[in-house]
Specification:
Blueprint lengths: L6 H15 L12 E3 L13 H19 L3 E3 L3 E2 L4 H10 L3 H18 L10 E2 L3 H16 L3 E11 L4 E3 L18 E10 L5 H6 L9 H11 L1 E10 L6 E6 L10 E4 L5 H5 L5 H12 L3 H5 L7 E9 L6 E7 L10 E4 L5 H9 L8 E2 L19 E2 L10 H15 L2 E7 L4 E2 L1 E2 L5 E2 L2 E4 L3 E4 L27 H4 E3 L11 E3 L4 E2 L14 H4 L17
Parallel strand pairs: 1-2, 3-4, 10-12
Antiparallel strand pairs: 5-6, 5-7, 7-17, 8-9, 8-16, 10-13, 11-12, 14-15, 18-24, 19-24, 20-21, 22-23
Helix pairs in contact: 3-4
The protein binds ligand ANZ.
Length: 537
């Protein structure tokens, strides 16, 4: 039996009437109170899925309710349209990313319209449109001028086939790129960052202000920010003026340090390595460059490391201790170096056993009757200090404070709060992204493009020849610009634009993170872990 409700006919008829009456248009110059109903922009992949339907229906219901309650409602739609998938899809199909993206937008717009959502289509934006990304660039310049956008060398996940930096979520559990399938390498590159760590404490404190958010989500956020309270201590290198800085949450164990470990990428690795160890160290560093952070730090694997031949001095007791490099020390966290205390840290305990390093007990349980206990595992609890010079006999939590004070008084270090949150790496070596409006001048460094000259437009005349480096690398006319106000002669030297691009939406930290819940809970990423995404993408 035919349904009495003919959706195709009825919906089309009414949607057309609503459009003619302008029901979804944002009223202008009205005295009514204002309401802005904004959903996260979809990525224009080509087709809506049910996650989109659910998501945009929610905002639609809110917008309709608010209109009925007498508000003048702005309910726009936009497209988060830059990113590697468009570029790869374009390469595979042989059509420019712009064309491919615009075709997808047209299709998804038609699908959203078919749903009858009350969106004001006159307010539609696309992040890949120059009149939109001039504001992405303007914002970047505000950050740059405030010192919140900066460049630094960083170890990144490098896809050797696509020749681009990958976000952690684009590397699978076996260390392969989810894009090209290549084994991802770790590489040191100069990159652009946003200094979100300046806001770590504020982000953490203000979680309390998020009324109505599930406790579970707030807890995940605080794990992600990962505040650790401890000390920054410096260990002088023997026969050198350099010192190795470490971050430790257990300054009370400093008399139990029996070695120091650097991350393989640490610049001091070159300084401390002796001629005899040079080859061993170089081989280990090369091996580590091939492994992802997840592989390197997997809990279930034995910790690997090699001796550098270098020697450090524990400033607290003058003892000479060996310097090693090891897989489990991450260059990006803390100072990229660790003081090894095998008696009181389980990871260090295993590492010391495997590498024949001494174990020195400096804390014992309150009721222990013997100071020189034979350990079967690390003793990680609080207790009474032993073998720790003038701190011997103190309760270890008290000794923490006393040792930090002693370090400050003797210039060995200071109290330090460390966050797991890292600055946000925003540059990619790709074409289909927002150009960073900075000129790289040999004489005056990074020079912002004057805001009246924005946008710096992406060129259209690019040629893709399969996977590989960004086609922008070959566009010398675009890459080199005449510099007038950068401290050079007017109209003089031509200096290159940066090749890297901002890709909004690739990774975000707050407030809607696309981060795996398992990582948020402080666990390691298991193979095949899916990314959580609040929007059902
Ligand atoms: C010595 C020590 C003794 C430590 C002890 C712990 C227990 P959270 O809590 O996660 O901040 N660490 C520091 N930097 C590191 C890095 N770049 N890569 C790997 N490990 C690093 O952890 C802080 C502890 O993690 C630090 O305290 C340091 O080991 C290690 F009985 O210092 B500890």
């Amino acid at each position: 039996m035919a349904s009495p409700y003919n959706a195709g006919e009825i919906e089309q008829k009414w949607q057309q009437s609503w459009a003619e009456w302008g029901l979804d248009k944002t009223p202008v110059a009205s005295d009514l109170p204002k309401f802005y109903a904004l959903s996260m922009f979809p990525y224009p992949s080509g087709n809506l899925h049910m996650g989109h339907v659910r998501n945009y229906t929610i905002t639609d219901v809110i917008a309709r309710l608010k209109r009925m309650q007498g508000y003048q409602v702005l309910h726009p739609m936009g497209w988060d349209a830059f990113g590697l998938p468009a570029e790869n899809a374009a390469i595979e199909r042989g059509i420019p990313p712009k064309q491919w993206t615009e075709k997808n937008i047209a299709q998804m717009r038609a699908q959203l319209q078919q749903l009858g959502l009350s969106i004001d289509w006159e307010r539609e934006v696309a992040t890949c449109a120059p009149d939109y990304y001039r504001w992405t660039q303007w914002l970047f310049l505000q950050f740059f001028q405030a010192g919140l956008a900066y460049q630094k060398e960083a170890t990144v996940n490098w896809d050797p086939i696509d020749q681009t930096v990958l976000a952690n979520e684009q590397v699978d559990g076996e260390g392969r790129s989810w894009r090209s399938g290549a084994m991802v390498e770790r590489k040191l590159l100069r990159q652009w960052f946003l200094k979100i760590t300046d806001y770590a404490e504020a982000l953490l404190n203000d979680l309390d202000k998020l009324d109505g958010w599930p406790e579970r989500v707030k807890l995940m956020q605080s794990h992600w920010i990962g505040k650790s309270v401890g000390a920054y201590l410096e260990f002088p290198i023997k026969d050198s003026d350099e010192k190795i800085a470490v971050f430790t949450t257990r300054p009370d164990t400093v008399y139990g340090v029996t070695y120091v470990v650097l991350a393989p990428e640490h610049p001091l690795t070159k300084v401390v390595t002796t001629a005899a160890q040079k080859q061993t160290v170089a081989d280990f560093v090369a091996l580590m460059a091939k492994e992802s952070e997840i592989e390197r730090t997997a809990e279930d694997k034995p910790k690997r490391g090699v001796r550098t031949g270098g020697v450090a001095i524990n400033p607290f007791n003058g003892k000479e201790i060996p310097i090693l490099i090891a897989d489990y020390v991450l260059y990006e966290y803390g100072t990229g170096a660790v003081m090894g205390v095998p008696a009181h840290d389980q990871r260090d305990f295993k590492f010391a056993q495997d590498n024949h390093l001494p174990i020195q007990v400096v804390i014992v349980p309150d009721d222990a009757d013997n100071n020189d206990v034979e350990l079967g595992a690390a003793y990680t609890e609080a207790g009474v200090m032993v073998n720790s010079a003038q701190f011997t006999g103190m309760a270890s939590p008290k000794a923490k404070e006393a040792i930090i004070k002693f370090a400050e008084d003797h210039d060995y270090g200071r109290a330090k709060v460390q966050y797991r949150l890292r600055d946000w790496l925003i540059s990619r070596q790709r074409y289909w992204g927002c150009p960073i409006p900075i000129i790289h001048c040999d004489d005056c460094g990074a020079v912002p493009v004057p805001s009246q000259d924005l946008p710096v437009e992406l060129p259209d005349n690019v040629k893709f020849s399969g996977r590989g480096p960004s086609p922008l690398a070959k566009l010398t006319d675009w890459l080199n610009v005449p510099v007038q106000n950068a401290g050079n002669q007017p109209g003089g030297k031509r200096t290159p634009w940066i090749l890297s691009l901002i890709l909004p939406g690739i990774s975000c930290v707050m407030p809607m993170p696309k981060i795996p819940s398992c990582l948020l809970m402080g666990k390691k990423l298991p193979i095949g872990c899916r990314w959580t995404n609040m929007w059902g993408d």
